[in-house]
């Protein structure tokens, strides 16, 4: 038998003298069968979210109301764009980035969640934690040089940003406007140790962050709990994370079925931090994709797109079980 003859019927797979690696064959001819390590880890994470939910054993983290109602940018903004705005009904969020660092985006949204959680748990605007590695571990993020550098940049953008959060309320013929302009942080002493298990030798090496009075007041008066395991799973998928937290809050606070338009000034696309889509149909397709992931973690999630495709319908529901909430 000729050793150099073609084996199998799959195009492009040739046996020449030595055995072909199975991985090579899969990559060349059966790409649809290849599952990445990241996808496997995400599937395991989703399964853990569901198990803990069914067991009423969810761990909680806390979010700040402005960033649940109006998401941070999902992707990096152009370098010359330092102002970002989102509106959710009567709420307006505007963020001005530092000229040197830009506007917070993407996984940067994990930093305010981490700080809000520590502030609620420690009951103080002065939050302390041992290392940057601890933060990565809390949110299930990999540790390494790339991740540490990304975290350093995230803190720089967060520290340099100025936030404007306004609430417009109509009462009779008078219009009550509550507005606040503030920074996330007032002071920060952060040590980016690469050894997360290294003990703190003294107070000098402890990470200490002082939240601004306005940010701490907002977190203290309106702490919004969410599922920590779900945040871990979605930490690398900021658009889906925004939707999950938004749905958790809106479904919990809903009294009856509500209809939220997908587009327009008051639409869902103006509230979340996702990139703008020129066509409403494109946004609707992405929304359905994100909803499938949310339902995988929260099967009872009542959110659905209306038959005419113009609105998102939600009903009262709780993403957190009674014991954890």
N-to-C span:
70 Å
Low-pLDDT segments, ≥5 res: 1-17, 172-177, 198-203
User: Order of SSEs, N→C?
Assistant: HHEHEEHEHHEEEEHEHHEHEE
Report the portion of residues in β strands.
15-25%
Strand order of the largest sheet: 2-3-5-6
Rg is: 23 Å
Backbone structural class: alpha+beta
Mean pLDDT: 82
Helix content: 25-40%
Q: How many E strands?
A: 12
Number of domains: 2
Number of helices: 10
Q: Using the alpha-carbon principal axes, give the shape.
A: globular
Q: Characterize the main sheet.
A: 4 strands, antiparallel
Which features would summarize this protein structure in a list?
2 domains; 12 strands; globular; four-stranded antiparallel beta sheet; three-stranded antiparallel beta sheet; about 325 residues
Account of the protein in words:
- The chain has ten helices and twelve strands.
- The chain is α+β, with helices and mostly antiparallel strands.
- The chain folds into two domains: 34 residues, no CATH class; 199 residues, no CATH class.
- The radius of gyration is 23 Å and the shape is globular.
Task: Compile the SSE list and pairings.
Elements: H1 22-29, H2 37-54, E1 60-64, H3 65-69, E2 83-88, E3 91-96, H4 110-122, E4 126-129, H5 132-138, H6 145-160, E5 162-171, E6 174-183, E7 185-189, E8 207-211, H7 213-221, E9 223-227, H8 228-234, H9 238-253, E10 258-261, H10 280-297, E11 304-305, E12 311-314
Helix pairs in contact: 2-8, 9-10
């Amino acid at each position: 038998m000729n050793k150099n003859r073609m084996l199998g019927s799959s195009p492009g797979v040739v046996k020449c003298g030595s055995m072909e690696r199975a991985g090579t064959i899969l990559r060349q001819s059966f790409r649809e069968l290849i599952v990445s390590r990241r996808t496997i880890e995400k599937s395991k994470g989703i399964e853990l979210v569901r198990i803990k939910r069914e067991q009423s054993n969810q761990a909680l983290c806390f979010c700040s109301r402005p960033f649940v109602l109006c998401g941070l940018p999902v992707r990096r903004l152009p370098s010359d764009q330092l102002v970002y705005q989102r509106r959710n009904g009567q709420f307006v969020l505007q963020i001005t980035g530092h000229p040197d660092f830009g506007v917070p985006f993407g996984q940067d949204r994990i930093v305010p969640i981490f700080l809000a959680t520590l502030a609620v748990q420690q009951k103080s605007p002065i939050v302390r934690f041992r290392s940057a590695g601890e933060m990565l571990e809390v949110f299930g993020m990999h540790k390494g040089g790339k991740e540490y550098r990304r975290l350093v940049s995230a803190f720089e953008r967060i520290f340099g940003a100025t936030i404007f959060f306004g609430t417009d309320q109509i009462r009779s013929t008078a219009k009550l406007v509550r507005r606040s302009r503030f920074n996330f942080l007032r002071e920060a002493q952060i040590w980016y140790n690469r050894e997360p298990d290294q003990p703190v030798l003294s107070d000098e090496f402890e990470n200490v962050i002082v939240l601004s009075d306005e940010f701490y007041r907002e977190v203290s008066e309106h702490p919004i709990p969410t599922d920590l395991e779900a945040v871990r799973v979605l930490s690398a998928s900021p658009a889906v994370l925004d939707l999950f937290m938004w749905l958790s809050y809106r479904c919990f606070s809903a009294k009856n079925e509500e209809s939220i338009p997908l587009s327009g000034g008051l639409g869902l696309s103006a509230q979340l931090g996702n990139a703008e889509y020129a066509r409403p149909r494109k946004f609707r397709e992405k929304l359905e994709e994100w909803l499938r992931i949310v339902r995988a973690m929260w099967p009872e999630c009542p959110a659905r797109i209306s038959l005419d495709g113009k609105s998102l319908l939600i009903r009262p529901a709780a993403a957190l079980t009674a014991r954890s909430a």
